[in-house]
Recover the amino acids of this structure.
């Protein structure tokens, strides 16, 4: 098992009087992680909430029935908790009625667990985001030389735990399985979408546009649905940790574009599965897009895993000068320009220099990327 960085933070949070909520897409390793966390705990019980017997037993607000079902276990894990109706209220009852119990709940749909249950866990929970493997976790599992040697496969097949390091044929089969059977399962199940084919067409369109600014009106024309439906589906995909949005940085200089957004995938392999392109890098015309998606998503993972609270942006002006990715904290800006080819040059746009102070500028390419994707020297 590859050690997950977030495990330490979750284990430490068990000492708090909080319900631990772990969000993440299906198949990113949530079940493996929570089972490993409770493996050596003497009074722990794991519940798969998708099993009918557990679902029926837990869908009650009767504290006596809950006490009988949960037993005397101190540590309780509710896996895929979004399957339980009113799970937020039920977790609140368990937390408040049995304060000696430590609760972990995982969910592949944060939207469902948050919205369908109202706000009963307000002030009672600690939330963690779990993603596919990070490059940093791969380096710690193997070593930098091995991880670097696998970089082309990482860009082609991604970093889902069951896929990393496997053969090309196995990786393609698994990615097809995840993309067709698991990726949209909760959206389709809980949101009762009337046009699931529209969802699939939309996410394919997004997969072709990574690294580019996204126009909701253009996506509406391509998919043949109202722009509000496009917006809604994008929100659902984001709340199920398939994609994430990056907004444009703007302090309102008249020359900047302030309402634009880019969309990236948490995993390059899933993106490639959606467009059915697993070709070697030498045969691709989208290596720049793939590289940008990889770097931006890896920075997002490292911030999640180490509980770094930063604002993330891109920057562009009307003269089409841009910065691929920016992290801002305490009015300090770290700029990242993503260039796969180390020979390609990049400079800070003069308009950015004019309007912003306190920044660093980094060109991230194939010969130095690890410096920006790991926390250890």
């Amino acid at each position: 098992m590859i050690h997950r960085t977030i495990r330490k933070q979750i284990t430490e949070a068990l000492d708090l009087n909080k319900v631990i909520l772990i969000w993440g897409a299906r198949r990113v390793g949530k079940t493996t992680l929570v089972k490993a966390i409770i493996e050596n705990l003497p009074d722990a019980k794991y519940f798969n909430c998708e099993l009918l017997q557990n679902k029926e037993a837990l869908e009650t607000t009767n504290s006596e029935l809950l006490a009988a079902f949960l037993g005397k276990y101190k540590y309780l894990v509710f896996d895929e908790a979004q399957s339980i109706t009113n799970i937020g209220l039920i977790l609140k009852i368990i937390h408040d009625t049995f304060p000696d119990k430590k609760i972990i709940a995982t969910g592949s749909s944060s939207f469902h667990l948050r919205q369908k249950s109202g706000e009963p866990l307000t002030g009672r929970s600690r939330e963690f985001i779990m993603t596919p493997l990070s490059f940093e976790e791969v380096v710690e599992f193997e070593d930098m030389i091995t991880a670097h040697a696998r970089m082309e496969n990482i860009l082609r097949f991604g970093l889902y735990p069951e896929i990393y390091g496997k053969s090309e044929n196995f990786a393609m089969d698994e990615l097809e399985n995840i993309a067709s059977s698991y990726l949209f399962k909760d959206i389709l199940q809980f949101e009762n979408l009337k046009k699931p084919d529209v969802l699939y067409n939309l996410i394919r369109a997004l997969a072709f546009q990574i690294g580019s600014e996204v126009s909701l009106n253009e996506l509406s024309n391509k998919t043949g649905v109202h722009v509000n439906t496009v917006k809604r589906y994008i929100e659902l995909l984001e709340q199920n940790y398939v994609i994430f949005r990056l907004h444009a940085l703007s302090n309102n200089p008249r020359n900047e574009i302030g309402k634009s957004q880019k969309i990236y995938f948490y995993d390059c392999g899933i993106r490639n599965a959606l467009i059915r392109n697993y070709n070697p890098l030498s045969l691709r015309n989208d290596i720049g897009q793939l590289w940008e998606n990889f770097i931006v998503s890896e920075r997002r993972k490292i911030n999640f895993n180490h509980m770094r609270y930063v604002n993330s942006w891109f920057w562009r002006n009307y003269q089409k000068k841009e910065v691929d990715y920016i992290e801002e904290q305490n009015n300090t800006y770290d700029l990242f320009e993503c260039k796969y080819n180390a020979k390609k040059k990049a400079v800070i746009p003069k308009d950015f220099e004019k309007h912003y102070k306190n920044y660093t500028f980094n060109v991230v390419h194939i010969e130095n990327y690890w410096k920006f994707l790991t926390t250890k020297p």
In short: DSSP finds 18 helices and eleven strands in the chain.
